[in-house]
Amino acid sequence: MSGSPSASATLLHPAAPPGRPLPPPGSLDLYLIRVPDIRGAALDTAVLDPTERHRAAELAHADDRIRFTTAHLALRRLLGTYLDTRPQDIRYGRETCPCCGGPHGRPTVLGASRELHFSLSHRGDLVLMGTAVAPIGVDVDLITDPGSAAELAAMLHPAEQAEIAALPPVRRPRELARLWTRKEAYLKGLGTGLGRDPAADYVGSGSPNGPCPPPGWTVLDIPVDRGYAAAVAVHGALTIAAPRVNRLSDHDIRDGPPGVTGRR
Question: Measuring CA to CA, which residue among 227, 12, 26, 194 is closest to residue 99?
Fold first, then answer.
């Protein structure tokens, strides 16, 4: 995947017309937020449900609370524009877990009028969201120090571990971050998360075009800010060459003047 996140676009403002078109089959939509761009904005936590507010309040550090609140407010506003629903009226559920059959698989919107799959990830200064009409997972992570990278590499597929070991030490943390975000994106899309052994599936660079996806899936590296890696996994083949990353502004999180309402 080439290029960089697109310029800031206000797509989720509450005043925007509802009924935002779903991503066509064979495509997906990606959205990126820099949390420092949101600092100082009036975050309307009343939009969140009691569980989300409780989870935010339990976080010890203010930066973590701001990142969590920003991420979940943005997701609710985004889903509301697709589903013609007020953000505060969205109710989440879970599909059945493919590993154990428990009620903790992929997240869903209960009672949604349109079939929409979505995924959310946040780490450090970044929030990444993805939507599609097929199962989807996204993940964003920091590029770790060499010591942490070695510990994480031990959890990977044996062929992925070999790929990491074959690299010069200076390149290993970045490549590991790429591999790990691909892995987590795929496991989120699958609906298992890390309940499935990370060593069970190969998502390394065994393909001439980059990531080698599990059968029936597409896995792509996503260009984000320096110091981070990100990936998306979607079930089925894509008919688009390189999905764009929409970079969102603070107007997408808080009240403000109406902005852009187009898809791109």
Answer: 194
* 230-254 per-position pLDDT tens digit: 999 999 999 987 888 999 877 776 6
Using CA atoms, how far apart are residues 113 and 85, in angstroms rounded to an integer?
9
Edge-to-edge order in the sheet of strand 228-235: 136-142, 228-235, 217-221
- Rounded (10°) angle between helices 172-190 and 146-153: 40
Structure tokens at 40: 């100082």
pTM of the predicted model, to two decimals? Answer: 0.87
| Residues 132-180 pLDDT 10s | 999 999 999 999 887 777 788 889 999 999 998 998 988 889 999 999 9
Give the DSSP letter of residue 144: P
Q: What angle do CA 252, 254, 255 make, to 5 degrees?
A: 100
